[in-house]
Amino acid sequence: MSLCPPGWLKTPMGNSYAGQLRTTRFEEVLHNSIEASLRSNIVVPRPIFSQLYLEAEQPLAAHNSRAENDDEDEEDGSESNSPPILYQIKPPPEGCCTTDGFCQAGRDLRLSSLASDPLDVLPGFMLVGLKPPSLPDSLLVCAVDHRFLPDERGHNALLGFSGNCMGCGEKGFRYFTDFANHINLKLSTQPKKQKHLKYHLHRNNQGVLVKGAAICWRGHDGRIRQIGPRLLEGHVTSDEQSSNLLLLQPSHTPANYTASHTNGSPQIADTPHPLTNGHNAIPPIPQPAMNHSGPGRPSTTGTQTNVGPPKKRHKGWSPESASNVVSENTVKMPPSSSTLSSSTAHSSTTNGARLDAATPMSSSQRSSTTLSPSGLSVAVPDQLLRTCGLQPVIFKGHGPLPRLTGNVSEVLVSSLLQSCYLSSQTLPRVYQHYGPSPIQPLSTEMQILLTVYYLVQLGPDQVPLIEDLEQIFMRSWRESHLSEIRQNQQPQAPGSQGRHYGIETPPTLPGLPQHLSLPYQQPLTPSQLPWLAQLAASSCGVGVVVFGEHVGSLAQGLQLMFCKLLEGGFQNTNYVVVIVTASGQETQSCVVVTGKHQCRALAESMFSPSEGLREINHQLSSGETQELIQFCNSLGQDGDMDSLLDSATLDSNEPSPLSSSQESTDDKSVKKTHSPKDSHSPKERVLATKETCTEYSVEWREVRPIQLAVARKLLSHVCAIADSSTQNLDLVSFDRVNFLILVPPSEVTFQQTVLHLWSSGVLQELGSLDQACASQRDAERFVVKMDQSAQVQIDSLIQEAHSNSYTLYILIHDHAHWDISSASYCNSESGLGLVDQLLNSRRIRDAPNILILHVTSFPFALQTQFTRISPYNEIHWPSSFSNDVDLYHERTRYFGVSELLDSTRSGGSLPLMRYDSSFESMAASLEERFPKLHSAVIRTTVLIHHYCIALMAVSGRLSGSHNLHKHSSVETLGIVQSLLSAAQQCPTRHGHMVLLRIPSLALAAWAQQRLSRVRRQLGLEEKFEIILGNPGQPLNIGQSFVDQIKIWLKIQEADWVPRTYLELEALPCILILSGAEPLGESLPRSLKYCDLRVISCSYLQRTTLEQELGLAAYLLKAESRSPHNPGPGSDLLESDAEKLSSTDNEEEEAQDNENSTPSSNLPVQSSPDIGAKATPSTQNNISPKAPKSTKASTPSPSRAQTQLPAQSTSQAFLYPKPSFHHLSQYQSQTYAQAQQVPSQNHPVSQINFQSYFHQVSHPQLQPPLPPAQSRRHPSKSTSSGSLSPRASSPHLNCSWARGVSRPPSVLLPRSLYDIITANDGSGLPRCTSFLPHMSVAWVSSFRPLLSKMMTCTEQSLYYRQWTVPRPYHMDSSNRTEGRSDNFHPRRLLLSGPPQVGKTGAYLHFLGILSRMLIRLMEVDIYNEEEINLSKDAREDGVQYSPSNVLWPNPEIMKTLSFDYTVHDPKYDDISFVYCPGYKPVSDGNTVRQEDVCLRRRTTRIKLSKYAAFNTYHHCEHCHLYLGFNPRYQIYDSSLHVFTFTHLRLGEEIQLYFIIPKSKEHYFSFNQPGGQVEGMRLPLSTDRSPDSIKSPIFTPTTGRHEHGLFNLYHAMDGVSHLHILVVKEYEMAVYKKYWPNHILLVMPAIFNAAGIGAAHFLIKELSYHNLELERSRRLEGGAPAVDVWPFVILADDSCVMWNAVDLNVHTGPVEHAVSLKQVLQHMEACPDLSHYGLCGMRKWSSRVLTAPNQREPFSRGHLHDFLLLNVDRSQNVQYDQNRFTCHDVDFTLRLHSAGLLVCRFNNFSVMKKQIAIGGYRTFIIKTKMTDVPTSVGPSQYICAPDSKHLFLATPAQLLLEKYLQHTSHKLFPLSTKNYEHPVLSVDCYINLGPEVTVCFVSSRPHSVNICTTGLLFSGLLLCFADTFVTPSFLKNFTFLKGATLCVISEDRSSLRQTVSRLELEEEWRFRLSDEFQTANAKEDRPLFFLTGKHI
Question: Of 440-444, 1632-1636, 1841-1845, which has the strongest mean pLDDT?
């Protein structure tokens, strides 16, 4: 019983210890433990030491209440808390020496006396200096057992004492009290070893005993605290919690153990679990997901045993036998992995190669690689590789590695483990928030021990992975400090716990009651480390060997390792751990990998991908592989493969069993050549067949709904950039789009992108190509391969972008993760760094019209802390399904990596993703046989050998072919069988594609040559093609196969050849895809097998793995049956899983006569809610004799296929995947069931498919599909449509048609399969926790795992927080001092799964972006022809002014008659203004009445460069104009009060000016910063080309965002005074949006007023300001009359201005001009002061062709844009009460006052249609706002003093609206009676379109029309003033029964008006004819009275 230390069963005499032996003998306990282990499914058996001892049952609460001297009391057996009693010294025996410094035997104990004497110290004892109180300057020498002394950290000292006297030599003192008496310590208190044992003693170089380091006693007064040993069995001590170690037992040893607890705590139940990778996977106890373990890396569960010694141990107890035992369930080992790859930020690489990774050491590298002290070296034995067959890998650990000498080229040294240790010991800054809490990193000893435990748990074929170890360290550290973390998190909110760290901490340590988490813990000591490491290693036999107990240095350990390695002592050892724990030194360690498989995998992982490929090329070129090839060619007893092939060639004249009945041997031909016997071309052969395949159809372009949604998301993000306040993108300034697509240097990817671009129609839409373009060659200039030639094209684009500032250039970087290397780290020959050099250049970065879109399936490398892409500019591909609901109605489902993983867990039949065990076994044996060859060479050779053997076996040309099956794998045989037999089932020879992924170009070329030779010798050249997919070369297809494809695609061009893999649809072929990584090539939907068995397992980054698996990504058609015609297989949705069998037999029925093997699969129709109806004959396709179970199931043939699960259980790696309930389910059927179906009849199941694909070359020739057939289909390519079989044939004879809607099968290497199928602690696939890309590094080991519930955005934020770019990453230089981010504002990232359709999405984005820019550059302009034009005016040929005259002549203008008729189309619903010369057209308004409900006619007009803009316009030119002036702060403006008295109102008017600091120079103040006195006005004689003299006033309401107030471009940058007139309640919002504009705020009383009030205030303010300016000028000596008297009244929707050019040849031409040009021209008019009002016409597209527009100037009504002379029009006011037609009223009164009104007809203003706000928007509502009512015009008035529903609307508005809608009833004689108008005195009011109004002014000397002989049908007196008299009214004649309407402000004035004007003489009134507006009394209603003429 070697496990029992010496003295274990002895009972120490006189010792009082807390633990005692059980009655069971040790041998019996050991026997029982072993027996229980053999019967158990638990990995860890119950520790024997826990069963041997009962621990002291001390309640833990006592630990919290004890005093610090608690342990000293325990030492003496006292549990009291009372003060110490005065110590009574025991009297010495008589005759003994009592001298201080001497023992009772009289021997001198002083150090000064014994320093040079030889002292006999027993083993295990140490010399200690004791400090006597009576001799303060002396030390006494004594020997103490080192177990009772603390280690260097003050821990792990046993309670009690064991010492010897060094004077007399007496031994065996068991109590320090006895020893103190013996050495004559005279004490007043009880002796304590902690108080008196002070120093270690050691001998110096001269051999003299001297004082050494002080003994580290913990606690006050040098006292110890020992808490851990008191804990109950089954609990974790604080010591254990700190260590978090696993007491590892052999992971392959079964054990059955229940953790029992003496206090009744929960137990761990025994649960059997299936074997996983040779180990028992242990179910984790309920705990946080981070602690879960995946298959292949079993967790260990069990009890937490006591680790410390009993309270008082006997002297024979060994501390190594029960030191800090580990908590078995605190660390869960991650799942299996295949290589130890770099994942920390400490390792760096160059060109993809790790600098720290080990490489073969040369002599020159020796000194720089090793960091050892001088003098220490280790000689590497010669012939190490030849002797041992391996190249050991040494991982640096702790401490310097000794220098290696000798045969160093056969040893690899790596610092990855050392970097992992350093990273795990570096606490991130976030943990410093917790102040002085004892949060410390893991100790060196703990890291080493955890490393040993990790290595022990690895399986024999598993390779250590650095990510696993980091997570173990992370979880161990986190759980060891769990109590501190919780204590520091107490003040936090519950929802924020754990988030502060960025790590989700579990609520409690698993298996540990919460009250046991103690803040003080005992760490592992160096003395305990070797024993614990060896104990852990012993659990796996000799798999892990630990050198530690007798190793004095790393050099000694390595030398011992090399010796044993040469002796063959490590045949079954995979790892050797060397641990050095010398006293007084830091612990050192290293790990040596000695397993052959592990050494090979690690050695290959230390090469960069490029270095690995170079090594493969070297081995191939040097002939090192010949022996391997010869070995594989030998078939043992079955002969040699070459000889068998030669025999097959000799027998080639015999017909092949695979030949179809229509073929003869003469049809066989060599690739690209035809034998003389070949008399028929492939075209003729296909046409000669009696049947044709009607199930094949192809379409290359179809934008699916989800692609359209993504394109719109892209557009939305671009608009968000433009809308932001940063002004980084001014979309409004661009008028067109240009683009360039950058793709990796792959010819196929290039041609594929060109094909998608050409067929998408984007080039025609953008105007880049002519519509008649018929060749896709023209599209190649828009796609660039990122090689050296890209520099020229990108430079050309940059130059073009700089010269075309109005074009937006989109740089699309497709496959963006491919080249992210920094240009400064790459040479020009490598081809890398071009993206950084080109896209990150300053010329592109600073170009405001270049936007970059990165597109990738793997965005992780672009999501780092220094990324250039803002997280807000990321667009993630959405999930198309949510809760089984097709969100985009695509009827397709994406089948990606997550679905492949689901198939491995379905359990129905063979999963779609699997590994080939036969292949793996043969490859592993050959790897051992040929240790010098690269594994890729070996695996490729074996794979091609298997394919060659399979071809020979399946071809049937060899007589003993049945014996060849054993030399290939079943998987390979099935693949080849399916490939050869598929084309035989289709009349036109449609077949499948088999993809072989061979990264090495040299190996791929060799594979193609080898397979082609075998194919030729077997006579199979016409059966299938072998294609080499070299990224740098175009496709090379045999001419016969090209002819076949042309026939299928109906291509007529003679020189057409396929350039993409997509064009190989349905071609039976083997595609050997080479290249270090896939470069974005899309594969056709005929891909059936994706053979990845030889891809590299060395580079385990997430991007590397996922892009290889992405080759098999697929878009499945979610086909379904009609509910009324379910068809066969519909019962499957309701069947149990047990009903599904696993025999594949579908193709056995179709190939019964060919003796073929099962090789394909057929999908069951899914989801009855996605409906495509089956053909009527579908239900009859099953034999009536077939059993029901056969009818209800669809046979799924091959081992390669599987049933998909009904519901997905895991999320996709990056993209959230939909549930899989309605996916096509795959089911297999037993062979017995298949026999019941007649094989000669129809197939068991019939699938109904639809097709919608056009020809590839001539899509324009294909007629569009009817709507019923325009259903979406899946696409294998990024933007192409799907390929689907038709339902026209009742027989699905075409194997391609059956397999086109099924995803391909994927074959992986075993090691990758184990990694990918395992889950990490969060439930995600294991590889999601890998380093995302080789060019990035983790920020810290202290990071959480990705969560299963994370969205794509959250995953992006995760990588942005936890990864940093390495120095050779292009983003590593993207740092700005003082900023946390440095995002490029015009850079977007589109990410989506592989093969999902990203290309089609971004191409469609280009199209809709172009359309949007055109839309942004265009506005809706009112385009209406003038109304109410009379025939006389149209036929009048008089020309008053020449057409080319610049300015109007006042004298000529006076001769022109004033046109009273309103021609503005917006007034088509108002009353005619009577004019004697006007004859209205009878049908003038008829059409208008019919179009009442239609919106006004508008036209889309592109904005000119002189347009006015709203607040959405941002450009670099108008920043200062909008308020971005560096001299002034934004919103830096002041409020000023301006008060003036208005005589007519009889009161003061108080206005408010908000004046920005930058505009104060337009105003005059009484003092600087004081009260404003007025606006500064120029003189009439001033002439300046850089300014506009007239102030511009723009009344506005409700249009703070949409009003066109940005006049910078309209004014062409000249100085002008622009004032916005706003209502008081809108002041704040206008100030916010227009901070640099002057605001004139109207008084609050005008908040409900109309446009008349605004114009009234503007005019009165302007006149008052004119008077003030004149006064100031007079005071300054200038003439007052010279002050400029004009102001501009502009509508807020005026957008552009035009001028007419008179051309003699072409006639008048209108073109856009600036507002500056218009105003300066009008202001330069010589006689402008003679005019009271000037304006211009409204633009119309037809106005230049109208005959009445020949006059350059005219007199009539003016609207929208007015130049008002406030001086001449001072006596004519705007009516401040008016809401409608105020400008018509003002113009009529102005003309009647004798003032000239002039319209400049050669200028026109365009008005933009703005649907929001404006003065014409009125809401008439009731005062009871909570009662929704519809108020009609008849309710706008009511009888006075009546009960009526009052309205919350101004009285004037109610009156105007009432008269407009009801005047035809009020004035019945006036309705449609132009000859008898209504007489309106002094005002114009709209009485509706059916009533004509004749305006007359009562003012003296006014200009009125002649009314002699005119009979009026009514009289309207509105607020009649004193100028209206009875005599004035007597001048007019009225019809009998004419209507009178008198309007006044109140009833009293109404009666006074009737009395004053003597109206009762001629008019009859009734009491009921008096009305008021429906206003409450406090709202001051208006009153009016009606009457009839007598």
Answer: 1632-1636
Contacts of 1336 (CB under 8 A, 6+ apart): 860, 861, 864, 1363, 1364, 1365, 1366, 1369
For residue 1719, the SS3 value is helix
Contact 947, 625 (CB under 8 A): no
**Consecutive H or E run containing 1971:** strand 1963-1973
Distance between CA atoms of 100 and 843, rounded to whole angstroms? 89
Q: How far apart are CA 1306 and CA 900, in angstroms?
A: 8
Tokens standing for 1238? Answer: 């007649």
How far apart CA 746 and CA 784 sit, in angstroms, is 10
Q: What band does 218 get if pLDDT is binned at 50, 70 and 90?
A: low
The dihedral through the CA atoms of 1824, 1827, 1828, 1831 has a sign that is negative
Contacts of 1134 (CB under 8 A, 6+ apart): none
3-state per-residue secondary structure call for 597-660: HHHHHHHHHCCCHHHHHHHHHHHHHCCCCHHHHHHHHECHHHCEHHHHHHHHHHCCCCCCCCCC
Task: Name the 3-class secondary structure at 1650.
Answer: coil
Question: 129 - beta bridge partners?
Answer: 141, 199
**Mean pLDDT score across all residues of the chain:** 75
Amino acid at 1473: V
Amino acid at 496: S
The span from the CA of 1924 to the CA of 1933, in Å, is 16
pLDDT per residue over 296-323, tens digit each?
A: 333 333 333 333 333 333 333 333 333 3
Closest C-alpha to 308, from 116, 103, 525, 95: 525
pLDDT for 962: 66
Q: Which of 1696, 1520, 1533 is nearest to 1613 (CA)?
A: 1520
Q: How, if at all, do strands 1087-1091 and 1025-1029 pair?
A: unpaired
Say which residues have a Cβ less than 8 Å from residue 533's Cβ, sequence separation at least 6. 448, 449, 452, 546, 548, 577, 579
**What tokens does 1308 get?**
């992986």
Three-class secondary structure of residue 1896 per DSSP? strand
Tally Cβ neighbours within 10 Å of residue 34: 14
d(CA 1885, CA 1667): 32
Give the DSSP letter of residue 1632: H
Sequence-ordered list of residues with C-beta below 8 angstroms from that of 603, at least 6 positions apart, any chain = 358, 391, 393, 412
Q: pLDDT digits over 1449-1476, tens only?
A: 999 999 999 999 999 999 999 999 999 8
Pairing mode of beta strands 1933-1944, 1983-1989: antiparallel
Q: What is the DSSP letter of 1392?
A: -
Portion of the chain with pLDDT greater than 70, in percent: 70
The model's confidence at residue 1748, banded by pLDDT at 50, 70 and 90, is low
CA angle 1535, 1537, 1541 (to 5 degrees): 160
**Read out DSSP for 1146-1210?**
HHHHHTGGGTPPP----PBP--TTS--PPPTTGGGGS-TTS-HHHHT------TT--PPPSS--S
- DSSP at 1318: S
CA distance 704 to 1404: 10
Q: pLDDT grade, residue 1770 (50/70/90)?
A: very high
| Residue 890, both tokens | 């695509």
Q: What is the DSSP letter of 792?
A: H
CB-CB contact of 457 with 337 (8 Å): no
Find the length of the chain. Answer: 1990
Query: Furthest-apart CA pair in the chain: how many Å?
Result: 164
3-state helix, strand, coil in the chain (%, to 5): 30, 15, 50
